[in-house]
Design goal:
Helix content is about 0%, strand content about 30%. It is mostly beta strands. Strand 3 and strand 4 form a beta hairpin. The strands form 4 sheets. Strands 4-3-2-6-9-12-14-17-20-22 form a 10-stranded mixed β-sheet, with no helix packed on it. It is built from 1 helix and 23 strands. It has one domain (about 65-250). The N and C termini lie far apart (about 35 Å). The protein is globular, with a radius of gyration of 17 Å. The chain has one helix at about 250; strands spanning about 1-5, 10, 15-20, 25, 35-40, 45-50, 55, 65, 70-75, 80, 90, 105-110, 110-115, 140-145, 145-150, 150, 170-175, 175-180, 180-185, 200-205, 205-210, 230-235, 240.
Length: about 260
């Protein structure tokens, strides 16, 4: 793991980064990833991590970790191409001990595609947000993000993985989509299982048009145990992915 610290802006290209007014620096080799992003002034400023165009990740270690509160990851609507199977997701916001995450985290304007739609996420992880993203964290916002031509794996979601904002977390998934891909058995178009279990989540203006097979316990929007002992509000979302004989209940969500 390599840590990068700044207070205002980190610019990420395919091969370099620049932190605040520092010099342009080569990114480390894959063995020294993931990149741990730290806001040095989290109580007064929001650090923006800005992605340029032309980024390709071909190693499962090519992802980012939230290392503090108050970070915005902005893809600027540029496409990030993933060329490795079992990719664990682009951004991690979970601290395994004590089982919490950082707050005031925004992920926006990120698009991900795979070099072939046979590439899948690792089990329970989302393509953009890894599993457990926002557990016990507040003001977790995922907006204007999409995945194109990708395949999801067991218990995962196209945008966010399993257990999004559980255990008291508060989050919003807005204006996100999953298109031209495949939702495999027991996986879901937007968010994985246990979303907002003992937490609160709004899923708004999201849609799926990726396909999923018959009798696979998959769903177009969200996974099972949705909002268990918590609250989930689903507003203006739809699925028109080919469900090949599924009931309309499973075509939308699995509770």
């Amino acid at each position: 793991m390599t840590s990068i610290s700044a207070s205002k802006l980190i610019l990420i290209t395919n091969t370099t980064y620049k932190a605040d007014s520092g010099v342009v620096t080569n990114l480390p080799v894959a063995s020294s990833w993931p990149l741990n992003i730290i806001n040095t002034t989290p109580t007064t400023t929001t650090l923006v991590v800005s992605f340029s165009s032309g980024i390709t990740y071909s190693n499962i270690r090519n992802y980012f970790i939230c290392g503090s509160n108050s970070i915005t990851f902005d893809g600027n609507n540029n496409m990030i191409t993933v060329g490795v199977n079992l990719y664990p997701g682009l951004i991690d916001n979970y601290i395994s001990n004590p089982g919490t995450s950082y707050s005031n985290i925004t992920v926006q304007n990120i698009k991900i595609t795979a070099t072939t739609n046979t590439f899948t996420t690792s089990s329970t992880d989302g393509w953009i947000c890894k599993a457990n993203f926002g557990v016990a964290g507040t003001n977790i916002i995922i907006q204007n993000c999409g995945v194109i031509g990708v395949t999801t794996s067991l218990q995962s979601g196209g945008i966010c993985g399993s257990r999004f904002v559980r255990d008291g977390g508060i989050g919003l998934i807005k204006n996100c989509y999953n298109v031209n891909g495949f939702i495999s058995a027991n996986s879901y178009g937007i968010v994985g299982i246990n979303c907002a279990d003992k937490g609160t989540c709004i899923i708004k203006n999201c849609y799926n048009s990726s396909t999923f097979p018959t009798n696979s316990s998959a769903a177009g929007i969200a996974g099972n145990f949705l909002g268990r002992s918590g609250k989930v509000y689903i507003i203006n979302c739809y699925n028109n992915g080919f469900s090949n004989g599924y009931s309309s209940h499973y075509a939308f969500l699995r509770t």
